[in-house]
Automatic annotation (TrEMBL):
SUPFAM superfamilies: Triosephosphate isomerase (TIM) (SSF51351). It comes from Pseudonocardia acidicola. The gene is tpiA. This is Triosephosphate isomerase. The active site is at residues 100, 172. NCBIfam families: tim.
């Protein structure tokens, strides 16, 4: 089975809704069908921008999909400030980030909460994009593989093999996010490969072969080709570079070119 590559742009807490609409229009113009035929391109705007972005995607028939950056573990009720899975589903979201390191750090999200959010996403047919990754201290102690496997185990507690196969895992070393310090393709492949092995142990070989695993952390147009060339890296979660339409569309086009050249490495 060949896994369809995914490039997801995490816009974080950037842009006004007017700027978000402008960016999605520019991306629509810059991304040809030939790229969409190979790569799934997703944008993950802030909550207030989901509706306008969705409207532009639909009315201008652009082939990108959209998703959110977080969701509440509950489906509704007295949770001031939170946004639920049913709300995101009603806005046509396909994806939702869960467990991004910025949520873990600034909002003290632990693996139990991340796991509850994974289940909330799955309950509403949203694809969770589950983020794991080690900080610099863990990397320097050489415990990064063990750390990421443990996070994955905890975050996927009581998730069925079919649900895992339909989810996306993102390996994002915290020391590489927004720092310009990208992991080497070998570093990224080592952890992504170990995560896929872990899925095989927890579930089965078919699930491990189906689940998409992305790398994230300072991915740009000029380093994406080497990353997605690795057998267990099925695309990228892109922060800073996703806010620039030229850079992001180039990054998607380079990924499409790399896949057109060799699909069997990722099967
Ligand atoms: P970055 O962010 O590409 O700016 O490093 C990646 C992410 O946080 O998802």
């Amino acid at each position: 089975m060949t896994r369809r590559p995914l490039i997801a742009g995490n816009w974080k807490m950037n842009l006004t809704h007017v700027e978000a609409v402008e960016l999605v229009r520019k991306l629509g113009a810059a991304l040809p069908d030939a790229v969409h035929d190979v790569v799934e391109v997703a944008v993950l705007p802030a909550f207030p921008h989901l509706h306008p972005v969705r409207t532009v995607l639909a009315t201008e028939q652009l082939r990108m999909v959209h998703g959110a950056q977080d969701l509440a573990p509950q489906d509704g009720g007295a949770y001031t400030g939170d946004v639920s899975g049913p709300m995101l589903a009603a806005l046509g979201c396909r994806y939702v980030l869960v467990g991004h390191s910025e949520r873990r750090e600034h909002h003290h999200e632990d693996d139990a909460l991340v796991n509850a959010k994974v289940h909330a996403a799955l309950r509403h047919r949203l694809t969770p994009l589950v983020c794991v990754g080690e900080g610099l201290g863990v990397r320097e102690q050489g415990r990064h593989v063990e750390h990421c496997r443990a996070q994955l185990d905890a975050d996927l507690t009581a998730v069925t093999p079919a649900q895992v196969a339909a989810s996306v895992i993102a390996y994002e070393p915290v020391w590489a996010i927004g720092t310009g310090r990208v992991a080497t393709p070998d570093d990224a492949q080592q952890v992504c490969g170990a995560l896929r092995e872990r899925v095989a142990e927890r579930c089965d070989a078919a699930t491990a072969g189906a689940v998409r695993i992305l790398y994230g952390g300072s991915v740009k147009a000029d380093n994406v080709a080497e990353l997605v060339a690795r057998p267990d890296i099925d695309g990228a979660l892109v922060g800073g570079a996703s806010l620039d339409a030229d850079e992001f569309s180039r990054l998607c086009a380079i990924t499409a070119g790399r896949y057109r050249g060799s699909t069997d490495e990722h099967s």
